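Structure in, sequence out. Go:
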């Protein structure tokens, strides 16, 4: 097992020439000027070779490639900038530019959001569509986590506590008027970061939005939760933690390798991925370029994974999925107790997907039971019907269902709301209504329909926890 990472690197090096050969041969059977294109079965041969190339190639970190967006119906330029660079993360800002001075002034007065991307296998570019939609009506920052194999070992370890401190530093840099959005894994450390700031008497963000995260992983546990809950910490240390090989800057650093995470992703639903690749093959044979491009765009992102620092990964397993330290009130970050009840001035919105198979129903919504210091009129919840885990932050349901409600929530709690409303009544080129879409309502968390009944879910969680703690 100790040589598994090195074996993977050797295999990848051996497959690299094969991948390039398959790519070149595929073009040989598909290029209009090639005589091989006109041979029998050429489309099938080309499609098969193309698929072989994609199955054997290495997937590098994708780019955001957001160079322009529409603001108030006008196309404006977007430039990606590095606001803060830390050893394990960069804080990126997507700055918008316009020649229209009234439009530029209006954009400067729009709410600022910090998107905290997951450090859980995929790169932050997985939230590309999230960022693109937000840029229409907001100033946007995002955390861009660094592949741990690229961080020299002498930099030192990176723990879950360090993650919390990174988030706090980013919030302080942007300012207290920021609206924080956490997607999946970071919901827990983000809640901890804001809780600690509140306990110290610091100004906290205007809002926090938590989407599909394991605030209370005991509720409606999924296959992902069960693995983390039912295996001991020693099992994870002995079976999924390896040292980075010598061909990377982070040589000898202990990590949870990206290739193992990718194997886990595929193992969750292998038949779906096999069918998807077969459909891709048939799309190439039929010449359906649009469907084939959709497949390649998705898997270019899905197959690009990063290594996680071992200490951060093990901390997360223990704190979130075994000790349930946040909901039990026992989590300390560098000696300070995490007290979500100390948050008083930050409004809360939770979002869950009806078909989420990674964070089960009720897990994210549990944040409302912890943030008792926030006035109940500033608690909101939304169930995205028909949406899976990825659907709550990308795709049609994100664009048409989740984002409009998120936008409304942010606008209703933003300090510049009054200014923005006045501007829309007086300026000829009006920005979109900041109060939200006509007829669109946010559901108070205490009345939100569609999620697991809390008493029943908590009762089942208590039974499961008791069963796990029984001596064997």
């Amino acid at each position: 097992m100790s040589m598994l990472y090195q074996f993977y690197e050797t295999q990848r090096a051996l497959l690299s020439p094969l991948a390039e050969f398959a790519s070149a041969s595929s073009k040989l059977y598909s290029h209009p000027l090639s005589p091989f294109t006109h041979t029998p079965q050429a489309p099938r041969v080309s499609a098969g070779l193309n698929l072989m190339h994609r199955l054997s190639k290495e997937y590098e970190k994708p780019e955001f490639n957001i160079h322009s967006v529409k603001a108030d119906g006008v196309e404006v330029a977007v430039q990606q900038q590095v606001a803060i660079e830390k050893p394990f993360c960069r804080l990126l800002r997507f700055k918008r530019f316009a020649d229209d001075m009234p439009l530029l002034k209006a954009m400067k007065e729009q709410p600022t959001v910090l998107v905290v991307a997951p450090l859980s296998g995929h790169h932050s570019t997985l939230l590309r569509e999230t960022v693109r939609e937000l840029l229409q009506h907001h100033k946007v920052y995002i955390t861009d986590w660094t592949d741990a194999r690229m961080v020299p070992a002498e930099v030192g370890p990176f723990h879950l506590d360090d993650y919390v401190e990174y988030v706090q530093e980013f919030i302080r840099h942007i300012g207290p008027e920021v609206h924080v959005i956490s997607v999946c894994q970071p919901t827990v450390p983000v809640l901890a970061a804001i809780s600690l700031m509140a306990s110290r008497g610091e100004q906290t963000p205007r809002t926090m939005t938590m989407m599909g995260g394991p605030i209370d992983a005991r509720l409606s546990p999924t296959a992902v939760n069960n693995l983390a809950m039912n295996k001991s910490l020693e099992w994870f240390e002995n079976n999924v933690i390896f040292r980075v090989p010598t061909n990377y800057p982070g040589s000898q650093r202990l990590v949870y390798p990206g290739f193992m995470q990718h194997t886990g992703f595929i193992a969750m639903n292998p038949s779906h991925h096999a069918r998807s690749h077969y459909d891709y093959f048939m799309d190439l044979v039929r010449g359906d370029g649009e469907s084939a491009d959709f497949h390649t765009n998705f898997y270019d992102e899905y197959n690009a994974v990063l290594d996680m620092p071992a200490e951060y990964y093990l901390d997360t397993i223990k704190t979130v999925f075994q000790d349930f330290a946040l909901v039990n009130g026992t989590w300390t970050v560098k000696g300070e107790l995490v007290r979500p009840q100390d948050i008083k001035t930050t409004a809360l919105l939770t979002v869950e997907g009806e078909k989420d198979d990674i964070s089960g129903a009720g897990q994210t919504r549990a944040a409302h039971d912890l943030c008792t210091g926030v006035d109940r009129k500033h608690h909101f919840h939304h169930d995205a019907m028909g949406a899976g885990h990825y659907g709550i932050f990308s795709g049609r349901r994100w664009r048409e269902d989740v984002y409009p409600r998120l936008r409304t929530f942010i606008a209703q709690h933003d300090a510049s709301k009054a200014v923005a409303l006045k501007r829309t009544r007086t300026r000829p080129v009006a920005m979109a209504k900041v109060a939200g879409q006509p007829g669109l309502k946010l559901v108070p968390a205490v009345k939100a329909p569609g999620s697991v009944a809390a008493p029943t879910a908590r009762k089942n969680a208590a039974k499961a926890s008791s069963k796990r703690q029984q001596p064997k």
